[in-house]
Amino acid sequence: MDQTRRKLIVFGATALTVLLLDQLSKYWIRTTPDLHNYTLVEGWLAFNFTKNPGMALGIHWADTWVISLVAIAATVIILVYVWKTMKTAGLIYMACMGLIIGGALGNITDRFFMARVGGYGGVLDGHVVDFIHFKLRIGDFDVFPYIFNVADMAISVAIFTLILFYRQLMPESFGKREDAEGAPDAGTDASADAGTSLENDPDTPAGSQTAPDADPAASEDAIIKPAPDPNPTAPKSEDNTKIEVKRQAPSSTPDAEKKPDSRESKE
User: Fold this and answer.
1) CA angle 129, 131, 132 (to 5 degrees)
2) What is the pLDDT of residue 50?
3) How far, in Å, CA of 21 to CA of 17, rounded?
4) Residue 173, pLDDT score
5) pLDDT, averaged across the chain
6) Largest Cα–Cα distance in the chain?
7) Is residue 250 in a domain?
8) Is residue 163 in some structural domain?
């Protein structure tokens, strides 16, 4: 199994597990009236069934359908980011992103269907089901007064894990990857260094040194093509090499060679 497929399996399995646990727990609380207000640990933890029309922590800054659209857009952006960073990401990072996506899908499912189930609106008008209430109080101060669900827990655990172990878990950023792609090729640098070392090597014969940037075709032409003949009228041998013609120095008495001796002619 290749690494990419393994990462996808970890991511998908984690997200699906969170989605199923979230929806099953909400259905269980919603359909069991005895659990709508049930104390688990006195003074610490209880079930308190509520419907949240806003965002996490009860923040309600717009209509429910607007908040639903924002939640869907944020989920899509996170999915794109996960896909872009998957090549350099580790399995723990993919599991954390699966927790975030699974939690987001769990709450989005409520926004899609809970209004139709409860009969108080249409698609995207649904309220998110919350039921986990951490009731610890210190004097008159509530340590954590907000009510949440399994999806919120998964998202919170993933975010805290990524913050605490940011350097170990987060993949390489896009800027670093672009810088790495724009860096000069190591093979080119090695070739240049090799050429420089050959030039500086005292044991290398002078004729065998070649410039690293020299054109191979030009070198080949320089070796094969003969030098131009400065005297094309001179006779040549079969091997296309000039025959050296030795010129004799003129005689000091040319007339002696051309005219016979007068004494010999008389005789």
Assistant:
1) 135
2) 94
3) 6
4) 58
5) 77
6) 166
7) no
8) yes
Of residues 190 and 128, more confidence is placed in 128
Task: Give the number of domains in the chain.
Answer: 1
Computed from CA positions of residues 140, 144, 147, 150, in that sequence, does the dihedral angle turn out positive or negative?
A: negative
Q: What is the pLDDT of residues 192-209, one digit of tens each?
A: 454 544 455 555 555 444
pLDDT tens by residue, 118-145: 888 888 999 999 999 998 888 888 888 8
**Is there a domain that residue 199 lies in?**
no
- Work out the angle between the directed axes of helices 91-118 and 150-164 (0-180°, nearest 10): 160
CA nearest neighbour of 107 among 74, 134, 82:
74
The tokens of 44 are what? Answer: 């610490």
- pLDDT, one tens digit per residue, over 29-73 is 999 999 999 999 988 999 999 999 988 767 777 888 999 999 999
pTM (two decimals): 0.64
Rounded percentage of the chain residues whose pLDDT exceeds 70: 63
Residue 101 resides in a domain: yes
The domain in which residue 77 lies consists of 3-181
Place of tokens 């069934």: 49
Q: Give catalytic residues, as residue numbers.
A: 130, 152
pLDDT at 145: 85
Q: In this structure, which amino acid lies at residue 175?
A: G
